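I have been asked to look over a protein record a colleague put together. The record follows directly below this note.
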Amino acid sequence: MVGVILVGHGGMARGMLEAAELILGPQENVVALGLDPSDEPGTLAAAIRAAAERLGTEQLVVLADLFGGSPANAAATVWHHRSGMAIVAGLNLPMLLEVLVSRDAPSAADAARIAVQAGREGVRDVVAALRSAMSAREGENDSGNAGQTPAH
């Protein structure tokens, strides 16, 4: 099982884990770490190293909130000294959910690919999607097919 470490500014990572567990239930081998304003440089990197040791998994994916941000940079310093670790920035809930349900992925790199794809697909313009669905329904009504099952 691929271990997961969430890192972010303030309480974001902890909040994301709470949201994911609200949907999926309690999760094993997941740690959420935050960068607080009072943290010394290197504090988060040390916490990531300690969490990776505690998880005890060879394959580890770190999901960070912001590319180039201090949490992602702290993870990168750990990556330099650890094999079997992937880092993905741009943490969002669809990404986290997909990674958590796909932790039987063969490697951290595979989990990272799943995270990136789910993260991208999870960003949607809801109003545009609603308008598209409404337009499709209006088209069905205009053609007299309302209430009928579409042919495949």
In short: The longest helix spans residues 126-142. The helical segments are 12-24, 43-55, 70-79, 93-101, 108-121, 126-142.
